[in-house]
Fold this sequence. Notes:
By secondary structure, the chain is an alpha/beta fold. About 40% of the residues lie in helices and about 15% in strands. The chain is built from eleven helices and ten strands.
Amino acid sequence: MTTIETATATLSNGVKMPFVGLGVYQAKAGEEVKRAVKTALAAGYRSIDTASFYANEESVGEAMKESGIPREELFITTKVWNNEQGYDNTLQAFERSRKKLGLDVIDLYLIHWPRPDTYEETWRALETLYKEGKVRAIGVSNFTIEHLETIINNFDIKPMVNQVEFHPRLFQEELLSFCQEQNIQLEAWRPLGKGEILNNEVICNIANKHNKTPAQVLIRWCLEHRVVTIPKSVTPERICSNGEVFDFSLDEEDMRKIASLNDGTRYGYHPNEFPYDTTR
C-alpha cells in the first residue's frame, strides 16, 4: 500500500519529491519546531518545508540530525526571501540557509515571491546553484502563469516546482493545467485554508462519509489533483493525522461537490499585490 513514505511525485529532472510534507511557517524556532519536525519524521513524513523568512532553519536542521533518519531519505526545501534577492545576494542567502540547516546539498530551493525588479536575476542564481550541484531541484513560489512564462522564455532551466496557495476556495485550475503542461510540479501551501474550510458543511459531510477528518479530506483533494502539499501544524496529533491520507480516495461526486466551493478566496497575498517595497 502507498504510504506517506513512498508516495512521491517525479520532478522534470527525475528527482522524487514526497507528495505530503510538513510546513513549518510560523513554527517557533527551538523546541516548538523541533518537536513538530521530529513528530512528523517519526510518523513517516520525509519532506520538510522551511524558508529563510521563517527564522527556524537552524532548529529544523537540528531536529533532522537528532531524528537519526539517514540524510538521503529526507527531502528538504527552503526559500530565498524578498530582501535577499538578486544574483549575488541569492548566492549568499543560499549559503546562509545551507549552513543553518547543516546540509551540504539542499533538495529544493525556491524563490519565495516574484519580486518584480529582481526575480529574474534571482532565478539566474538558482540556475548557477543547480548547475554546481548545490541543489537537487530548483523552483519558485507564488508565481503566476505570466511570471512562469518569463522564466521559461528567457532562461535555460524551467522551474521544477511552483508552490502556491491552493485549496478548494482557491482552486487555481488554469495555473494547475499550465504547470502540468509544462511539467512543473504544483505544490500547495495553506492546503487547509482557514477554519471555515475545515468547518464547511460540504467538507464535513465528505469526511463523515469516509470516516476521515476534514483536514484529511482537504489533503486528499490535493493528491487527487496530483498536487504536492505541505500542511502546517505543531500539534503532534494533527501532524500524524494529516499524514494518514493514503488509505482512501475521493470519488467523482466528492470532487464535484468540493469544486463547487471555489470562489477565489485568498488567505494570503496575490503575487501582484504583495507589498514588496516593505521587505527590501
